[in-house]
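Good morning C.,

I know you're traveling, so I'll keep this short. The sequence:
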Amino acid sequence: MNKPQTRYAVASLILHVLVFGALILGALFHRKPEPMRVIEAALVQGGGQQVPNPQPVEPKPLPPAPKPEPQPEPPKPTPPKPKPEPPKEDPVKKAEEKAKKEAEAEEKRKLAEERKEKQRVQEAERKAEQVRIKEEAERKRQEELKKKQEEAQKKAEAERVRKEEEQRKKDEEKRQQQAIADDLKRQEAEERKAIEDARAKRAAEDKARRDALAAAAAAEQAARDAAVVGAAQAQWGDLIAARVRKFWQRPPASADTFSCVVEVKMNPDASVVSATVIRSCGTAALDRSVEQAVVKASPLPPPPDPRAMPADRTIKIRFCPSANGC
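The tokens, ready to paste straight into the viewer:
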């Protein structure tokens, strides 16, 4: 038999002994029951009204009883037996019982301490388990949170890369479109410039042709005009020379034939302002006579063609005394 079962058997034996002793003591000191007391009570009807006690009915007088016969005396009560004296305690047995009780108390104390220690250990284990479960739950929560954060970061990174790629494609497409537009603009500009250059070249060529034609025409016209003007001036010079001969007086002892050139300045009405021999007639006297004759011939005859009159109204005439020419 193991140690806990031994302890339980001893405890059970002690308990039986104590119960048995209690029963004996109860039988010895049991009190007799008191006689019942008569209690008078009043009846109460329904509704709370008290019913009066009935008046006692006086019994009818009984006939006189016969004289009792003498009774024998009752026997005297038997005196109670004296209580047995409790047995004297054995000191050795008492010491053994005390030691047994102390051992049982110590055993109980140890059992209580063991139970307390076991409960403490269980409570510590329970708390440790709760802490472990809590830490495990916290670890799982942290792992789940970290996983969610990593997934969110991955998702954000993927979204960022996607947006960057999308933006890069848009920028590349925009750049290509801009390059195409720039090429088109450049081609259009080059075409416009080529057209404008060709147009300008044709215009320059046309202008050059027109200028050349105009210059040729102008030169031709100028030549014609010059010829006309020259003929008119020559004719006008002959007319002026013929009029000057009318006013010329030959100086004494001068040559019969000579020729000179006189520069004549005049007003718009052909009146003479001055006359100067620029190529001498041979002598100073002839030069003065010719200059005087020109001044006297003023106003000179108008030109046959207005274009024959120079802008500065200065003409050069050739003079000779012969009307047949010099």
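Safe travels,
E.
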